[in-house]
Amino acid sequence: MNIPRKHITTLGQFIIERQAEFPYAKGELSRLLRDIGIASKVVNREVNKAGLVDILGDAGSVNVQGESVKKLDVFANEQFIAALSSGGECCAIASEENEEIIPIQNKVSGDAKYIVAIDPLDGSSNIDVNVSIGTIFSIYRRKSGSGPGREEDFFQEGTQQVAAGYVTYGSSTMLVYTTGHGVNGFTLDPSIGEFCLSHQAMQIPKHGKIYSINEGNYSRFPEGVKKFVRYCQEEETSSGRPFSSRYIGSLVADFHRNLIKGGIFIYPPTAKTPRGKLRLLYECNPLAFIAEQAGGKASDGSKRILSLHPAALHERTPLFIGSEELVKKAEECMQKYSPVAV
After folding, report:
1. How far, in Å, CA of 137 to CA of 230, rounded?
2. 199, 219, 242: which is the final residue of a domain?
3. What is the Cα–Cα distance from 257 to 206, expressed in whole angstroms?
4. For the chain, what is the total number of helices (H) and then of strands (E)?
5. At what angle do helices 251-261 and 285-293 cross, to 10 degrees?
6. What pLDDT, in 10s, does the model give residues 311-338?
7. How many domains are contained in the chain?
8. Which of 137, 253, 286, 321 has the largest CB neighbor count within 10 A?
9. Is 132 exposed, middle or buried (0-12, 13-18, 19+ CB in 10 A)?
10. Whether this model's pTM surpasses 0.85
11. DSSP string, 133-173
12. What CATH number is attached to the domain comprising 232?
């Protein structure tokens, strides 16, 4: 009996086929995305065997955010820096783990057109308990001339991104990215070591039924967020409420679930962190780009995330992201009950 083979499209093939989306790039952006894909496969290998080797636990230092650095954080950061530095398409990197940018100077990167902002291992506080973690990346065209990139190259609004994506390391490993022409997801097939197209033209449901927020901080939330949480918890048949509360505490994992099933993720301003906790450049902007390309919405509670102009490398912002109608409702609550909170 002849069973017809299902056509498999790998990440590399897909990028080549979509080359026409970036006519100005002449292959550089495609190679840069390829480099990120290769580094993520190396990180995935270590994530999957982390419990078998001496790679779990604290590395004995803190990063620029004041957070305890895990050994796997250090490894992931090194892998992405190495891949992006040697590929020749990137002239500077901004990483969550480094206080300053990493300018790249070598024979092949002197005329590189792109800069990359990256969170090498998001959700690292979950490493030791085997919860999904991820990588978030954002790609811009440089503003400066030739040579190594400069810090000012990174101070661009999110609307200027040419590509953005994330990798989630979980029960299966997925790479999801956009170049401004829709969102596509690729699942890693460990038998062949390739990311294969599994989720084409991803769209987030307009009306979600999941809200993701750390309710342990409820007493510190602005009144607008409290009102929205209570709205989600009220029983109302026509809207399908009460909604389900789902919070993993790993941004990539929470966002990925809501992207597929519909919902909203919120990291609001609090009494302790009035400007929020998440970083605009390499967490909020790339996920906001993906959300909008998938038909969703991303806001700081009043303004579009992609319209915010960063003034610092590790600038923070509140984040309301996910299904369009839920984000709009959250914004209404913020504007009515907490008009000066953001």
Report:
1. 33
2. 199
3. 14
4. 7, 17
5. 10
6. 999 999 999 999 999 999 999 999 999 8
7. 2
8. 321
9. buried
10. yes
11. EEEEEEEEE-SS-SSS--GGGG---GGGEEEEEEEEESSSE
12. 3.40.190.80
